[in-house]
Amino acid sequence: MSKLNIALIGAGRRGAGAHLPVIPALSDTYRLVAVCDIDEETANKYARQYGVNAYTDVRRMAAEEELDVADVTVPGPAHHAVCVYLARQGVNILCETPIAVTLAQADMMIEAARESGVVLEIAENYYRAPMERFKTELIKRGVIGKVSRIYRIFREGGYHGMSMLRLRAGGNPVSVLGIAHETPVIPHIDRMKRRHTSERWSLSYIDFDSGAAAVMMYSNVIHGRTLGRKVNSTGQVHGESGAIVENDVYAVPAAELEAGAIARAYAPRRVTKRIDGVDALQRIELELPDETVVWENPLAHLPILEGRVNVADELLSAAAAVRSGEPPEYGAEAGRLDQEMNIAVSESARRGRESIFFPLTEETAGERSTHASYQANYGVEWNDVDGLLDVYFPRR
Fold first, then answer.
1. Could you tell me the pTM of the whole model?
2. pLDDT by residue (tens digit) across 318-332?
3. What CA–CA distances, in Å, run from 113 to 36, 67, 74, 267, 331?
């Protein structure tokens, strides 16, 4: 089957650091043909590095290149403009997270993709990490029984965290309660070049229609691992017969259920193989008292580090959808729901810890403020697709 022509749009930290290095490893699927970035120096730098064409205007790139897929890694406030434009040109899209910064923008993207008949996949990568895939297999096999509670304490917040809570709960959100607290910190810049003058802490409690409940806490300073934070974090999934704590599985042998039911921890084991100088993950396996659970890496034949398997996975998901005509594995609706949950948490906190029920039926105050900020920050209305294509979106 012929290769798909792909271009990277937005060669900033995420695009250049995570996506570009992976695309050449998928040479059986993709042919990288262009790098587009509104900053000419950046576009030229990475185009030279990968031997492809450089562009600073997405319109010119779409006109001059025969593109099958665009890998969109521009800043979030520009996602809807770039993706709507590309969809109208008949280009399939893999869009970085979040799908968009407001639900109205996400809906613009979904509608443009539907009208043009193109794929719109969302690059939600957390659940695609091999260890998370392995945990999904454990839950699917019933190793800990039906999931009852999920905790993500200072692991990750926002849409990423919501995605993980939802997938682990195995259901859709019913309601959310959000609490927010902000305190000043000494001004500083973290390792991701983000400037902080305050610590914004939040707590989310979510009920799901599967009967599971979830608690998540997040802090921008803890996320940035600055000022002595990031000292403690945990991810736990509790079920009716066991638990997953970080990567360890706590299970009770059947013979001990009536004799104390004290669980012991079982640690999974990674198996790797050297491929073209890379220790490529082959599988993850776990020996339990009554069974052995194995997750086979579908990309085990490729020279890709474990930390980059999730990016390769999302790129291949987009390609599979383009070739088969079937929906992508994750998809725009799932990405929209993640952001809907994220927005609902903020709205609950703004309303004085009022429970918010799903689905959201009207634009929130936060979304109205975000839309109004486009004219102030960029000199263009939020829904002016053509105008936004000429805007430089700095990382904020």
1. 0.95
2. 999 999 999 999 999
3. 21, 15, 18, 43, 11
